């Protein structure tokens, strides 16, 4: 079985921030050696918030449909399996079956309009 990583080293180029429309999120899968990292980034203006794509409730990837990580109003992250709700800025779960838990941060930065792991 393929190893699934829960973090990445700093300095990996992820492409332009502009590939994530403002107010939306995007899935990232990185192949690192023989292992894979699954994460997602939410963009708000020129800020990017990255998280490991694993729900603290049951460990599943949050989105069942590609890049659908946010509520319809775009102000919260939502797990598509059992409806857990998370704050975009810090990943804190504020509703659903894992209230009080947190998404695992995936540190990313924006430099000159480009995204990198941090
Ligand atoms: S796996 Fe995310 S709410 Fe259950």
Automatic annotation (TrEMBL):
It comes from the Bacteria. The keyword Lipoprotein does not apply. Residues 12-117 form the Rieske domain. Gene3D superfamilies: Rieske [2Fe-2S] iron-sulphur domain. CDD domains: Rieske. Pfam families: Rieske. Keywords: 2Fe-2S, Iron, Iron-sulfur, Metal-binding. The keyword Iron applies. InterPro entries: Rieske_2Fe-2S, Rieske_2Fe-2S_sf. PANTHER family: PTHR40261, RIESKE DOMAIN-CONTAINING PROTEIN. This is Rieske (2Fe-2S) protein. It comes from Asticcacaulis machinosus.
């Amino acid at each position: 079985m393929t190893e699934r990583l829960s973090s990445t080293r700093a300095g990996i180029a992820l492409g332009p921030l502009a590939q994530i429309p403002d107010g939306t999120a995007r899935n990232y899968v990185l192949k690192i050696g023989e292992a894979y990292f699954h994460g997602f980034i939410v963009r708000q203006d020129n800020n990017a918030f990255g998280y490991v794509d694993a729900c603290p409730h049951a460990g599943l990837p949050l989105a069942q449909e590609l890049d659908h990580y946010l509520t319809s109003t775009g102000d919260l992250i939502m797990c598509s399996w059992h409806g857990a709700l998370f704050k975009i800025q810090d990943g804190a779960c504020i509703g659903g079956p894992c209230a009080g838990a947190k998404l695992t941060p995936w540190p990313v930065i924006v430099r000159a309009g480009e995204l990198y792991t941090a």
